[in-house]
Q: What sequence folds into this?
């Protein structure tokens, strides 16, 4: 995973939040690497990646941010199911958008949603886990990019 | 005018429904899977269908094939997170009337819808 | 060994031969049984035929029996008549008879005279009384009966026409006879008469004295005997005048004249006349021709009972007629003859047979055995001899019109004698044998009948028995045949069934060995053969189970045949038998299965396979065009993710009889192989870089290297945690400016760490790390250059840190192996006077060379500081590195410049390390170069350039201030940064470190002469 690859995701994040509310800025804090103890927040949407790269892309956020997003979408009622739906959908959108750069061989799965720290997913053991901190409306979220690229 | 919204996310479905709410649309059906979509479409033959691609079970493009099989004149608008050109071209080749990328903005969606039902 | 085996084999062969022989015997015996059975059937058929024939014979015998019965019966009847004729003839010739008839006739004639003489006058009154009484008797008796019989009777006078004598005689012997009717032959003696109270006394007295009475008395006893002996019904003597002068029976014909009354034209008259006027053949002897017989007819004198008369003239010696003797024979005489006293079975007439006599009027002359069963219309009334009503009789009843009877009297038949089958009066089919009796004087016929059923009942019975028996035999024979058939074919059928079952795929089927003949042997062999096949199948199955490739066959239609290796299913994740290979490669969209190849590849495959099927193309020549020699495809996993799989397909023709009948497909799952190849390639690259690295680090002491790496790693970890922590630095309402400044601070921290690492790497001459660190430094610098810093701009830094980290890990790994290798080779790491400062020498030289300078390093390491204490070592090395570099880059001039200044072209760098005092726990570290020394003017210039001070202000700066500038991060006197320096980081790090260690740093300089950096570090 090089800068350009991670950059794709960052672009996607900006694009997504812009679509929710144009003028509200999204702040990307410096991305870091976290190989153990991934920083999962209250809700996590996970997309499995295969094909050109293997691993997962996860969007994890607290309920407050997700609720805010839902309000912007005029979604009612706001309950747990709907929040889970959204977090999965965000992960899905961000992963799907990455295909713009990676191509159609960047195969994405349907979303898996987890809550809390106990996230059960087979993350690839090798490869670095990039964490992109996102701050939107004073709420924090992370985009985790845990991918290994297949060399040809 | 009958509208069928196909997406595995209920949030997305409701969002699309809200965006497309208009006097023209008399009936709205929602489907969470390709199979349900085909079933509903074959029963009601909606005027417009919005269709996601990444869904569990039958994927969106197969669903598209089915719908086009039922009615070659079907007006299907793909609304998908997959941003790569190849997918878009494939969808159009297979009979989609249009392709929008998530995240969608409402005005874009409304525009697309208007274009779809124009003739 | 082989010999033993051969022997064993021979023994085995013998065994089977023996057993076969023993088996052969049984089937032969079965065949024998079968043929015996056939023979038996034939015999049975013959027997049945024989029995049938005997049935016929039985019939014939029966018939013969009847015929002989007929014969014997007719003979008996004729004999009877012959005897009767003889007897009557004999009687007629008896003197006694002559006397009797003469006397009785005379007495008859003179009766009235005699009575008169005896004292009784027969007057008309008496006579009329007699007649009156007689009339009553007649009217109530015979006349009434005869009327009932339908006879014309007429009046009493007409009927009886009794002469006075007749009347008197009937009065005495019948009317007033005290005996019961039918027994009037009793009380006929003179004595009886004289005592008969019914008679008037005078009369009886007179009568008993008459000649007639006396004659009666005299001869009656004799006649009684004759009658009794011959079973005549009656014996009569008729005189020459036709007066019935004597009858035994004393019926109503007694005393009458044959020519008068009912006697006229009766059988009695006929028989009298016949006898009287018969041929006078021989004088004195009555020949047979003189005897007259009348047929049985109703005789009024016996109340209408049928009577037969026999008469014979009584002649005197001269041949003159005296009278006629008449025998009356009743029908029962004949009936008895033809009824065998009821012993029907004895004569073979059983239940339904009878014999009877008929006359020319076709009426019965004897009573039918079945008179009771006969319809009433065929029967007539009868009266007993006493006049009482008798049973209905068939004698002289309705004429019988059955064929037998008719044939006797028929003119049309050839013979009046014969056998016939007819239906009798009761409608029963009967067999009849018949013949005319041929009795002289009588035209009688004899018929013997029996129902055919009974006649032939034994035969019928027998036939039935035979038929039944034959049927039974047939059944038995059939069953036996079936059983045998089953016995023989059963095992065959079982064998066939087993073969069929095996043919349809059930290889577990075995033929039951149920017989010990050739069939059983065959079954046994068959089973053995199937065992072999099964065993072979098992082996093939085992092969298919264990072979490590996907292996299957397909026909020219590309349909995959069942029976493929187990792995095949694992590879394709489903059962593939009977589906098209093309469908397997690219399933229809509806099936929801993953396609393995694209449309184009599928087409190419189809073309290739068609080529393969073409016999004109050589298989080997087209191997290259196999489009499936190696393909990659995506397999959908359970979680919705895809996984790459690599497959290799090989195709081979299966040729049978010169034609390609099938294609054998082998599939190999290359995924692991490909992964392995990739792994190898990666490892190669890794190894390559590792070798490079190895060369790069060979000069180093592994522990030293290890330390560097640890330090570098922890530094990077620290930097990453700084990055991670950075997000927490944000606060609500933070402006972008504030953020930017925050990021800047982070950048500074990071850059310092990197610079340090770089320095260390340089010192150790780890160029690889140096380069990486340098790259990172450049990235940091470019980021720094931006006015408004954004978080994502840190991305290259993060990735750079990551790559550095990767490099460190790789090297670590390598070192690990080296260390272990070193242990193996047992090489001592400690060699020569290696100090902690030694690397600095090389560093200096390297840097010098890189920068076009020449330098010599003078190491002055004292006080046991060759090996620094552990906590000091790293920072000291780092700092020293920095200082040495600085010295070479900034201090030492190029050789040309040195020469111009009359300095030795090779610069000198002195590195000192010593303790301040022996006791004090402080060390001095110094790096001194004999170069330019600090150029304050340059410093001033630089300061202004970099914006630290204005042109004007800079003049005011003291040398100390300028020196301080040196330690400012980012300050450098160089125009462009190089690997070694010019970035303005290094001295500040040194300063920081020194400060951290609680030390002092001093700078000494003389322009154009030397520059010395001195560090005073406490040891604690």
A:
């Amino acid at each position: 995973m090089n800068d350009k690859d991670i950059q794709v995701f960052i672009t996607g994040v900006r694009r997504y939040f812009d679509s929710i509310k144009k003028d509200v800025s999204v702040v990307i804090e410096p991305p870091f690497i976290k190989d153990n103890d991934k920083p999962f927040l209250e809700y996590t949407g996970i997309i499995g990646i295969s094909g050109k790269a293997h691993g997962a892309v996860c969007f994890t956020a607290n309920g407050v941010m997700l609720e805010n997003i839902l309000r912007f979408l005029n979604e009612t009622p706001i309950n747990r199911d709907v929040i889970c739906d959204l977090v999965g959908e965000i992960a899905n959108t961000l992963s799907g958008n990455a295909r713009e750069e990676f191509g159609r061989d960047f195969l994405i799965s349907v979303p898996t949603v987890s809550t809390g720290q106990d996230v059960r997913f087979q993350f690839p053991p090798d490869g670095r886990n990039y964490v992109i901190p996102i701050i939107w409306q004073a709420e924090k979220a992370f985009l985790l990019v845990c991918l290994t690229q297949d060399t040809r | 005018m009958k509208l069928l919204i196909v997406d595995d996310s209920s949030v997305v479905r409701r969002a699309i429904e809200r965006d497309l709410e208009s006097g023209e649309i008399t009936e709205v059906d929602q489907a969470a899977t390709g199979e349900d979509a085909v079933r509903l479409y074959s029963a009601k033959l909606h005027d417009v269908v919005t269709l996601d691609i990444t869904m569990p079970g039958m994927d969106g493009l197969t669903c598209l094939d089915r719908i086009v099989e039922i009615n070659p004149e079907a007006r299907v608008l793909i609304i998908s997170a997959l941003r790569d050109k190849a997918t878009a071209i494939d969808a159009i080749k297979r009979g989609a009337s249009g392709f929008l990328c998530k995240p969608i903005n409402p005005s874009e969606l409304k525009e697309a819808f208007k274009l779809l039902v124009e003739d | 060994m082989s010999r033993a085996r051969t022997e064993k084999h021979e023994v085995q062969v013998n065994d089977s031969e023996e057993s076969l022989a023993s088996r052969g015997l049984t089937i032969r015996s079965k065949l024998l049984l079968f043929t015996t059975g056939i023979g038996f059937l034939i015999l049975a058929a013959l027997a049945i035929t024989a029995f049938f024939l005997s049935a016929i014979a039985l019939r014939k015998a029966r018939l013969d029996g009847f015929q002989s019965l007929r014969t014997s019966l007719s003979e008996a009847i004729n004999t009877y008549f012959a005897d009767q004729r003889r007897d009557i003839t004999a009687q007629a010739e008896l003197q006694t008879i002559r006397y009797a008839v003469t006397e009785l006739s005379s007495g008859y004639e003179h009766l009235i005279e005699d009575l008169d003489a005896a004292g009784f006058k027969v007057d008309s009154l008496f006579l009329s009384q007699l007649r009156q009484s007689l009339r009553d008797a007649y009217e109530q008796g015979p006349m009434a009966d005869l009327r009932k019989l339908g006879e014309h009777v007429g009046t009493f006078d007409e009927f009886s026409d009794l002469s006075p004598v007749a009347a008197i005689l009937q009065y005495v012997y019948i009317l007033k006879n005290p005996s019961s009717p039918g027994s009037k032959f009793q009380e006929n003696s003179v004595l009886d008469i004289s005592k008969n109270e019914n008679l008037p006394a005078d009369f009886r007295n007179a009568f008993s004295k008459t000649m007639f009475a006396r004659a009666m008395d005299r001869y009656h006893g004799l006649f009684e005997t004759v009658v009794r002996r011959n079973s005549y019904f009656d014996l009569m003597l008729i005189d020459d005048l036709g007066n019935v002068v004597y009858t035994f029976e004393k019926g109503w014909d007694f005393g009458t004249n044959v020519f008068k009354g009912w006697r006229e034209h009766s059988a009695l008259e006929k028989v009298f006349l016949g006898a009287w006027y018969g041929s006078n053949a021989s004088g004195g002897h009555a020949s047979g021709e003189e005897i007259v017989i009348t047929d049985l007819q109703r005789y009024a004198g016996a109340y209408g009972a049928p009577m037969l008369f026999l008469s014979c003239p009584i002649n005197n010696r001269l041949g003159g007629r005296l009278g006629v003797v008449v025998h009356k024979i009743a029908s029962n005489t004949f009936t008895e003859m033809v009824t065998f006293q009821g012993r029907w079975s004895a004569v073979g007439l059983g239940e339904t047979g009878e014999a009877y006599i008929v006359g020319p009027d076709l009426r019965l002359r004897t009573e039918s055995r079945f008179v009771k069963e006969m319809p009433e219309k065929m029967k007539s009334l009868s009266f007993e001899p006493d006049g009482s009503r008798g049973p209905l009789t068939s004698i002289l009843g309705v004429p019988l019109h059955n064929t037998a009877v008719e044939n006797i009297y028929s003119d049309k038949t050839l013979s009046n004698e014969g056998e016939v089958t007819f239906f009798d009066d009761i409608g029963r089919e009967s067999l009849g044998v018949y013949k005319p009796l041929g009795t002289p004087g009588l035209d009688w016929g004899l018929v013997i009948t029996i129902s055919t059923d009974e006649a032939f009942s034994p035969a019928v019975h027998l036939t039935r028995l035979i038929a039944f028996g034959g049927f039974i035999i047939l059944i038995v024979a059939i069953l036996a045949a079936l059983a045998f058939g089953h016995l023989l074919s059963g095992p065959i059928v079982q064998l066939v069934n087993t073969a069929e079952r095996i043919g349809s795929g059930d290889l577990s089927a075995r033929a039951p060995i149920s017989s010990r003949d050739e069939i059983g042997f065959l079954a046994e062999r068959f089973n053995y053969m199937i065992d072999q096949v099964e065993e072979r199948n098992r082996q093939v199955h085992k092969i298919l189970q264990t072979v490590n490739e996907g292996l299957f066959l397909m026909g020219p239609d590309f349909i995959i045949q069942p029976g493929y290796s187990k792995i095949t299913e694992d590879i394709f994740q489903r059962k593939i038998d009977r589906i098209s290979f093309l469908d397997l490669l690219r399933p229809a969209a509806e099936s929801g299965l993953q396609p393995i190849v694209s449309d184009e590849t599928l087409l190419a495959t189809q073309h290739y396979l068609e080529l393969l099927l073409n016999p004109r193309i050589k298989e080997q020549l087209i191997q290259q065009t196999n489009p499936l020699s190696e393909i990659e495809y995506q397999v959908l996993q359970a979680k919705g993710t895809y996984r790459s799989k690599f497959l290799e397909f090989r195709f081979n023709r299966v040729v049978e009889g010169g034609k390609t009948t099938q294609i054998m497909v082998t599939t190999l799952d290359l995924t692991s192989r490909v992964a392995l190849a990739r792994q190898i390639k990666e490892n190669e690259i890794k190894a390559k870089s590792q070798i490079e690295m190895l060369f790069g680090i060979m000069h180093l002491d592994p522990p030293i290297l290890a330390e560097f790496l640890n330090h570098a790693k922890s530094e990077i970890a620290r930097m990453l945690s700084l990055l991670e922590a950075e997000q927490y630095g944000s606060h609500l309402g933070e402006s972008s400016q504030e953020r930017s400044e925050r990021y800047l601070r982070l950048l500074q921290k990071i850059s310092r760490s990197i610079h340090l690492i770089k320095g260390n790497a340089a010192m150790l001459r780890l160029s690889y790390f140096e380069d990486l660190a340098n790259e990172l430094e450049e990235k940091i610098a470019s980021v720094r250059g931006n006015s408004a810093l954004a978080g994502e701009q840190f991305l290259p830094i993060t990735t750079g840190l990551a790559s550095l980290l990767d490099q460190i890990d790789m090297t670590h790994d390598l070192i690990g192996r080296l260390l272990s290798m070193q242990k193996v080779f047992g090489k001592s790491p400690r060699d020569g006077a290696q100090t902690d400062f030694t690397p600095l020498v090389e560093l200096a030289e390297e840097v010098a060379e890189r920068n076009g300078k020449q330098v010599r390093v003078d190491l002055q390491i004292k006080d046991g500081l060759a090996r620094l204490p552990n906590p000091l070592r790293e920072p000291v090395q780092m700092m020293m590195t920095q200082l040495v570099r600085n010295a070479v880059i900034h201090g030492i001039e190029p050789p040309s410049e040195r020469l111009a200044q009359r300095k030795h072209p090779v610069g000198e760098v002195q590195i000192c390390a010593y303790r301040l005092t022996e006791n004090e726990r402080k060390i001095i570290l110094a790096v001194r170069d004999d170069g330019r020394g600090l150029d304050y003017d340059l410093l001033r210039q630089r300061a202004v350039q970099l914006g630290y001070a204005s042109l004007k202000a800079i003049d005011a700066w003291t040398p100390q201030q300028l020196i301080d500038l040196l330690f400012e991060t980012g300050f450098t006197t160089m125009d462009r940064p190089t690997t070694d320096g010019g970035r303005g980081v290094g001295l500040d790090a040194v300063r920081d470190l020194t400060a951290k260690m609680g030390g002092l740093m001093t700078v000494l300089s003389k322009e154009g002469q030397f520059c010395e950096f001195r560090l005073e570090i406490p040891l604690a």
DSSP finds five helices and five strands in chain B.
